[in-house]
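Progress against Task 2.4 (sequence-to-structure conversion) is shown through the following example record, which the project officer requested during the mid-term review.
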Amino acid sequence: MAGKSYHEANVYEAAKARMRLVFRHFERVCVAFSGGKDSSVTLHLALEVAHELGRVPVDVLFVDLEGQYQFTIDHVIEMFDRDDVRPWWICLPINLRNASSLEEPYWCSWEPEREADWIRPMPEHRSVIRDQGYFPFYEYRMEFEEFIPAFNEWLADGTPTAFLVGIRSDESLNRYLAVKRRARVKKSAWRSPRTGVPVQWSARDLAGGDAVTFFPIYDWKFEDLWRYVAEHGCAYNRLYDQMYKAGLPFSQMRICQPYGDDQRKGLDLFHRLEPETWFRVVKRVAGANYAARYSRQRFLGYRGGLGLPPTFTTWQQYSEFLLKSMPGALRTVYERRIQRFIDWWAVHGYPLSSWPDAGDPKLENRKQQPSWRRVALSLLKQDMARSLSFGFARRDIDTLALTHRGNG
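Structure tokens generated for the chain above:
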């Protein structure tokens, strides 16, 4: 895989040049906004260029997943009250991952008839959309991964529309690949009408359509964000001040829904930063307090794990035990995904008969070698096999959703 290449260009001027390219070729521009540092800077840059080109207001999408810090909501209101912003504040029942519990692997934001359990009251801002009939594409408890592309195509509605997303390749390997991969998969990148060259920092839906996603600050570093905010006097989420005072490492200063596979490791921050919200976060879903206390611990498979428990002789035996301890529907999902994992490696030169029980840790960490230890650690993490390279799958979500409704 090709590595990063560096240039002498100023990232601020480079980002503005990218923004100008987008505004000049797309009739509508929408910024994906989470209230976090990356999306805030992306929005400020977009507004800066929009004013320069006479293209205000700019559409801004905020999908409110209920589990938000009050600091974040204050910043959203601050930005959505601006005259140069056309806001879309989504407060609909969206199905979300709950990595805190085997019994309740998913939860629903803004779930009807559970208002007493909501982490926050429904916001009253003029831009809030709470009517489930507002969007023709919306389905009750649809996945976040389904809502976003559907909204993008709905907003475009036959008009070339650009969506600006604040992803930085410096923040994580996954985000780096989200940008870098586009250079290899040429058909998914938008091509400049003038040059015909694929734009690396873009992603077109392979199914077609008029919506194209761009990552204009992909080459920014953490310090670039805050230099821009300071030098331009931009509004920002004051939660970061609290994170800094609490001694949080820069790499952990992220804002997202609290119960996801990676996000649950920051659950305890609610207790430290916004204690008045903490008790409702814990009450909202099963297992939240457990996840906040233990989700970073070695015995749950993080930081390499503690090693094979002495009551088991092999990692395969331990994996089979962990599977048997799961609720039936969830076990079905894991068994299906593990089988696909086995089948994929068989096609790529690693049949199950040649698997090591515990392989080379470096190769395992790089996902270059299968082993029963990898399977066991994924089961311990309860990550829906994400560490085995699985992502969103409607079939598996439906299996669990049917069970959840049956139990309800």
